[in-house]
Design brief:
CATH architecture: 3-Layer(aba) Sandwich
Largest sheet: 11 strands, mixed
Number of domains: 1
CATH class: Alpha Beta
Helix content: 25-40%
Number of strands: 15
Mean pLDDT: 94
Strand content: 15-25%
Order of helices and strands: EEEHEHEEEEHEHEHEHHEEEHHHE
Radius of gyration: 19 Å
CATH topology: UDP-N-acetylmuramoyl-L-alanine:D-glutamate ligase
Length: 311
């Protein structure tokens, strides 16, 4: 299996509150509360670890509440290369209602200084040569502006890294110009980055094809409508089976991990996409990250419907 480096600039402690229905302005009682050390790159790393890969994780981490993350790294066997920053890593609150609706209340993130930014770039210089793939995923914390993020991506390119990019907003817009190996926006993120109507499916597909001329793999997630994948060889759409939605948190990260696994393994396109779509379908039926039931995953994969897209 591969050695993979994930970069999570803005990790979070996810507090997921499960409740029957959210009643605004009233006292709500929860059915369950779970806390997970998370962040998009770390979520991807957990699924990749379940798929057998070796993970190094880096980014910025608050010194004051690092313990839950360090426990995760130890339990998962991750090589910890996070740059510690004064203060606490943010907390994100996820309100998960019984009908599958999720309300996110995300914290602002750490304040990252120049010394920590330089330390991360120095670590990447050392780490990248020993890894087959670099995953850059998630939002930017305070103190990390888009020009520095572009510098980070340019540094990875100079080091010869194969980069999978999953971010949003201005970071995605500028990242697209650098032509990473793979991108995984959802429809809303791609529309925002390219100035399109998120409801115009044809325009989004056309834009994905245009990007595919210089980005080898364009993976566009579409929620319950599935995922479209544009690659040099072909374009496919996958429709997942219907499942009971518990939480959509981490579903896109699970999809990305599944795609990377299939591509690194050299699987046929159909197998890669069906397996990744099944992993994402399993993810929405649980709170937390990772592959929890291999037999169920096989059943979900068999139920994925694939359709070629015209190029």
């Amino acid at each position: 299996m591969a050695r993979i480096l994930t970069v999570t600039l803005n990790p979070a402690l996810d507090l997921t509150v499960q409740l029957p229905a959210l009643r605004l302005g009233e006292v709500n009682r929860s059915d369950n509360l779970q806390v997970h050390a998370a962040g998009k790159g770390l979520n991807v790393a957990q699924v990749l670890a379940d798929l057998g890969h070796q993970l190094t994780v880096t980014g910025f981490l608050g010194e004051a509440n690092a313990q839950p993350f360090e426990q995760l790294f130890a339990a998962r066997g991750f090589a910890d290369e996070f740059v510690r920053v004064a203060g606490e890593t943010r907390s994100n609150i996820k309100l998960a209602e019984a009908d599958g609706r999720i309300t996110d209340i995300n914290g602002p993130g750490l304040e990252v200084g120049a010394a920590q930014r330089e330390e991360l770039l120095a670590r990447l210089e050392r780490l990248v040569p020993g890894h087959e793939l670099v995953v850059v995923a998630g939002s930017l914390p305070r103190g990390v502006e888009v020009p520095w993020f572009v510098e980070l991506l340019q540094r990875l390119a100079r080091l010869g890294a194969r980069v999978a990019l999953d971010t949003s907003g201005a970071a995605l817009r500028e990242g697209l110009a650098l032509s990473p190996w793979l991108i995984k926006p959802n429809e809303e993120e791609l529309a925002q980055a390219r100035g399109l109507d998120p409801a115009d499916a044809r325009a989004l597909a056309d834009e994905a094809r245009r990007l595919n001329a210089r980005i080898e793999h364009v993976v566009m997630s579409q929620g319950a409508a599935g995922v479209s994948w544009f690659s040099p060889a072909a374009a496919w759409h996958a429709q997942p089976p219907k499942v009971r939605v518990v939480s959509t948190v981490g579903a896109g990260d699970s999809l990305l991990a599944g795609m990377l696994h299939g591509l690194l393994a050299g699987w046929p396109a159909e197998r890669t996409l069906a397996h990744a779509t099944a992993i994402a379908a399993q993810a929405v039926g649980q709170v937390g990250f990772g592959i929890t039931d291999r037999a169920q995953l096989a059943e979900l994969e068999a139920a994925v419907r694939l359709q070629p897209l015209s190029q």
